[in-house]
């Protein structure tokens, strides 16, 4: 899948599908207080939702993939978890796109001029009370991770890495796992990676993204 085809698929109108599920039961959720996503978390939400945005950046080099970050271990929320660059939409942000680009610059020093905006996915609601807008972006064609000269903020990001496009396009890759939490069984997505545990809202957004890319 080249850059031109990615542009077409990412810009297309999108209805959330229902992907095939492989469920594995586990005793405990990976992190107390984290939500499994829009499909199984609305009962955890109280009060108004907080608007947020994340940037979903595509590397288009020799080894294409989606850029992800691992948060630092000392954070009070979501410590050590894998996420997209992003955060709350501030009053000064003109749009979800502006917020996602600002946060990516603050977190990993990604220059907004290097990002070609390519559309959005549907908003995603978490059990922690956020409504996340995933903003899709293409990074310079032919570049790899080293050429971006990223500098993760030591206060927020421990590492930047990529989930290969080949894994994202494999319908057998994501797994649906099941854990008992707050008196009921809840489900969440997990993506395979040799070094990182990709789960929760990040994994669910990747599932929705993969379904769009695999559509004929």
UniProtKB/TrEMBL annotation:
Q: Which domain of life is it from?
A: Bacteria
Q: Which InterPro entries does this entry report, sorted A to Z?
A: CoAse (IPR045121), NUDIX_hydrolase-like_dom_sf (IPR015797), NUDIX_hydrolase_dom (IPR000086)
SUPFAM superfamilies registered for this protein in UniProt: Nudix (SSF55811)
Question: Per its UniProt record, what CDD domains does this chain match?
Answer: NUDIX_CoAse_Nudt7
Enumerate the cofactors the protein uses. Mg(2+); Mn(2+)
Keywords, ordered alphabetically = Hydrolase, Magnesium, Manganese, Metal-binding
PROSITE patterns per the UniProt record, alphabetical: NUDIX
State the Pfam families in the record: NUDIX (PF00293)
Please list the residue ranges annotated as the Nudix hydrolase domain. Answer: 48-187
Keyword Hydrolase on entry: yes
Q: What is this protein called?
A: CoA pyrophosphatase
- The species is Limobrevibacterium gyesilva
